[in-house]
Structure formats: C-alpha cells, structure tokens
C-alpha cells in the first residue's frame, strides 16, 4: 500500500528516485500513465495488470468506456527502476503533468502519484477546506 508524501527532485534526464517506502513494491517494475487532475499515476506491474483486467471488462459498446480506455492506456509506459532506484518519467507524461524539478510524490493506496509541487500545493489547499465535510458523503460508513 502506498502512503505518505515525499519530495524528490526530477533530474536533468527526467528521472526521479523512488521513495524508500515504495521501493519493495515497485522493484519489479512500474507502469506510469496519465492521472486525473494532471498528475502521473504510478502502479506496480502487479497492480496495473489487475486494473487492466477490470478495464477489459468495460463494454466496448460504451463510448465513455472507450474514450477513457484510450486516454488512460495510450499514455501508459512500463519502466524498470535502475540500481539507484531511479525511474524515468517519459517526456509525454512530464509535459502532461507540467512537471518541473520540484516534485511531490504521494501515496494513494493502490498507486503513487507524481505531482509538480506547485500544482500539488494548489490542489491540496483547494481540497482541504471541504475534506472534513465530505468524508461521510463520499465514503458512506467511514466514520
């Protein structure tokens, strides 16, 4: 499970060092793809395969499902961490998410997310105000 917030830097070759707490789960490889709100989703190979199985079950007759599938999978890239635990974030994903040198990597349960730090801080500031008010409505029975 991916938890926490980390602040790695993007190097000149477009690589980041994976947070130490994520390394075991991601050692076998990662799949990165476009995330909602212009971040990069990072899945372990195992988790991405499970997600892909669910996606495959979407009806091909649904335009909304086809559209989502195309955008989600066309941006996906399989990467393997090097011996220094670095992975390259493909340029298309760096551009999509507006990544600069300063990054924020968050754990989001079954995935990690890579955000440009300024974008993350703006998103978090916007969402924190409503956080306590929406927990019960969004996830019934949580508290």
UniProtKB/TrEMBL annotation:
<dbReference type="Pfam" id="PF02381">
    <property type="entry name" value="MraZ"/>
</dbReference>
<protein>
    <recommendedName>
        <fullName>Transcriptional regulator MraZ</fullName>
    </recommendedName>
</protein>
<dbReference type="InterPro" id="IPR003444">
    <property type="entry name" value="MraZ"/>
</dbReference>
<keyword id="KW-0238">DNA-binding</keyword>
<dbReference type="InterPro" id="IPR035644">
    <property type="entry name" value="MraZ_C"/>
</dbReference>
<dbReference type="GO" id="GO:0000976">
    <property type="term" value="F:transcription cis-regulatory region binding"/>
</dbReference>
<keyword id="KW-0677">Repeat</keyword>
<comment type="similarity">
    <text>Belongs to the MraZ family.</text>
</comment>
<keyword id="KW-0963">Cytoplasm</keyword>
<comment type="subunit">
    <text>Forms oligomers.</text>
</comment>
<dbReference type="GO" id="GO:0009295">
    <property type="term" value="C:nucleoid"/>
</dbReference>
<dbReference type="InterPro" id="IPR037914">
    <property type="entry name" value="SpoVT-AbrB_sf"/>
</dbReference>
<keyword id="KW-0804">Transcription</keyword>
<feature type="domain" description="SpoVT-AbrB">
    <location>
        <begin position="76"/>
        <end position="119"/>
    </location>
</feature>
<keyword id="KW-0805">Transcription regulation</keyword>
<dbReference type="InterPro" id="IPR020603">
    <property type="entry name" value="MraZ_dom"/>
</dbReference>
<dbReference type="InterPro" id="IPR038619">
    <property type="entry name" value="MraZ_sf"/>
</dbReference>
<dbReference type="InterPro" id="IPR007159">
    <property type="entry name" value="SpoVT-AbrB_dom"/>
</dbReference>
<dbReference type="GO" id="GO:2000143">
    <property type="term" value="P:negative regulation of DNA-templated transcription initiation"/>
</dbReference>
<dbReference type="GO" id="GO:0005737">
    <property type="term" value="C:cytoplasm"/>
</dbReference>
<dbReference type="GO" id="GO:0003700">
    <property type="term" value="F:DNA-binding transcription factor activity"/>
</dbReference>
<feature type="domain" description="SpoVT-AbrB">
    <location>
        <begin position="5"/>
        <end position="47"/>
    </location>
</feature>
<dbReference type="InterPro" id="IPR035642">
    <property type="entry name" value="MraZ_N"/>
</dbReference>
